[in-house]
Design a protein that fits this description.
Blueprint: H1 3-30, H2 35-48, E1 52-54, E2 57-59, E3 66-67, H3 69-85, H4 98-104, E4 109-118, H5 123-132, H6 134-141, E5 147-153, E6 163-171
Length: about 170
């Protein structure tokens, strides 16, 4: 291999690495949780830090979740869809479920789950309601989940506003 070719090869690899780092940095900047979202995440992680009974199932304390903006986008899309189309379900009118919504946002997942709620006015109220519900609580406490996104969408003319969606994931 000649010296000039080797230099070009190294320069190309360095440029590729710099471009990858820039893209990662841009995504990290774009993926900053808001103060409200940080409060929701802290509340969920406080719940996960304690052993908990969810219905008839006992959960040990589990590791905290990280905020993920792709999961947040999937949550917001579902909350918005429920608000705009005045429905309340894990399945949207087109038949899509959480896995399809998360994939559409570019999150490559191994595990995914979703909690929804409607009508609660505060994050504390909706999280407390989820913790009191066996299935929702179990989602919050699943040790296989590592990431979370959550949204709240107001729709004053709908039956159920505000709409809340919480999406959990574990990447591949």
């Amino acid at each position: 291999m000649n010296h000039r070719f080797l230099c070009l090869l190294i320069a190309g690899a360095l440029l590729s690495s710099v471009t990858t780092l820039q893209a990662s940095a841009e995504q990290a900047v774009q993926c900053e949780a808001s103060d409200t979202q940080k409060v929701w995440l802290a509340r969920i992680n406080d719940a996960r830090a304690q052993p908990r009974q969810c219905g008839d199932k006992r959960f040990e304390a589990v590791k905290p979740l990280s905020w993920n903006c792709k999961l947040e986008a999937a949550a917001k899309a579902h909350s918005s869809n429920m608000a705009e189309n005045d429905f309340f379900s894990h399945t949207d009118p087109d038949g899509d479920r959480v896995g399809q919504r998360v994939t559409a946002e570019g999150y490559t997942w191994r595990r995914v789950g979703e909690n929804i709620a409607a009508g609660q006015k505060s994050g504390d109220a909706v999280i407390e309601g989820w913790l009191e519900s066996a299935g929702h609580c179990a989602n919050i406490m699943k040790k296989t989940f590592t990431d979370m996104g959550m949204s709240r969408v107001e729709a004053p003319d709908s039956r159920y506003s505000p709409y809340w969606t919480q999406v959990f994931g574990r990447p591949r």
